[in-house]
Amino acid sequence: MSLANDKVSVVQRAIGANALVASRVIRSGFTNVIQSDTYNFASGNRGENVVFYGETAPGANYNSIAKIGDEYIMLSFTAGAITQAAKYLFTASGWQLYTLDGASYSTGAISIYGSDGAYKASYTTIDLACAALANGDILKIRAGEYTLTGAIDITKTDVQIIGEDCVRVNCAVGADYGFKTVFGAISSTKGITFKNLEISAADDATQQAIRIENTSATGRINVYINDVDFESDGGDSIHVDHAAAGAAIRLYMKHGTIEGPINFTIKSTDDKIRIEDAELSAGLVTSADNIAMEILLHKCLVLHEGVTGGHTSQLLYTPYCLNFTDTNPRVYAKYDSSDSAGSHTDSLLYPA
């Protein structure tokens, strides 16, 4: 039975080089049988007899609809590999979009939404999804553990990468970093947000989880990191490399355990570091640049003598912070001047 006889098709529009999205269901469509084969779907790991229907004959890259029993699956092929898929199942309430594992859900596990909240597309890897981001997009990742296939450069601005429930992201083996901003010559304030994630950069002692670069920028970059835990084998959990000295970088962080150092190069008086209710397990180090700027650690746990580097022009505020020793068991105390082991100027310590 062809899809045309079943009166179902999916109108598709391109989202990225490796992705499609279903925009609506119509009565006529893909009738050309282009391949009949057994394909072992990664989700479920089952061999299924699949008939592929497409607008054109298959090539290195093509789009198709597959029918398995009463299920229809939209597939995007790149060099013969499925890079994006969505399943449609006819129910009493009409055609419903499912994931390949059969869970009743409107999107896949890794999905992009527009800045208006509208669903755009689902992907099989975080790498592919990040490559398809547009300015202002929201990438949502469902609960699970994911391993990146390479270092990810974020080239689009004002994007949000958000985990839903418990999401662990492992940086790729051999990669220098997990995520890096590559915004280019921005001339106005742009940002990036990471939220509700666990990021593991533990491949080796130099791997970084998040790297912020502002090469060629004249506008400010705001980095928002909320409810993110970092795992490290010694490399920086957050590394700020300030190539464009005249453009500010600001780090705003709330809630999380940061196992690796935060390493921040200071180059602008408009730079800011504001961290609230977080554990700095390996401390914070800033560059020794003679630049007046502010660092605020509020209600944080900070490694004893863990704030290092800096310059007397850099003002450090630490209201309601505690220090702890790197021992087992830990010893906790009020944050005091001895915890500021660098050259920063302590402007506010733990209230008396």
Considering the chains and any ligands shown, give keywords for the structure.
single chain, 352 residues, mainly beta, 2 domains, seven-stranded parallel beta sheet, 1 helix, 31 strands, 2% helix
Walk me through the structure.
The longest helix is centred in the middle third of the chain and has 6 residues, at 126-131. A hairpin with a 2-residue loop joins strand 5 (61-68) and strand 6. 39% of the residues are buried. The protein has one helix spanning 126-131, and strands at 9-16, 19-26, 32-41, 46-54, 61-68, 71-78, 81-91, 94-98, 110-113, 119-123, 138-141, 144-147, 152-154, 159-163, 167-170, 177-181, 190-201, 208-213, 221-232, 238-241, 249-258, 262-264, 272-280, 284-286, 293-298, 301-303, 307-309, 314-317, 322-324, 332-334, 345-348. The strands form four sheets. The protein has a 16-stranded mixed beta sheet that branches. It has two domains: 9-98, no CATH class; 110-282. It has 352 residues and is mostly beta strands. It is 2% helix and 53% strand. It is built from one helix and 31 strands. It is globular. The termini are far apart.
Gross morphology: globular
**Rounded Rg:** 24 Å
Number of helices: 1
Structure summary, number of beta strands: 31
**Largest sheet descriptor:** 16 strands, mixed
User: How much strand content do the residues show?
Assistant: over 45%
Question: Helicity level, as a percent range?
Answer: under 10%
The poorly predicted ranges are 1-64, 66-71, 76-106
- SS content category: mainly beta
The mean pLDDT is 77
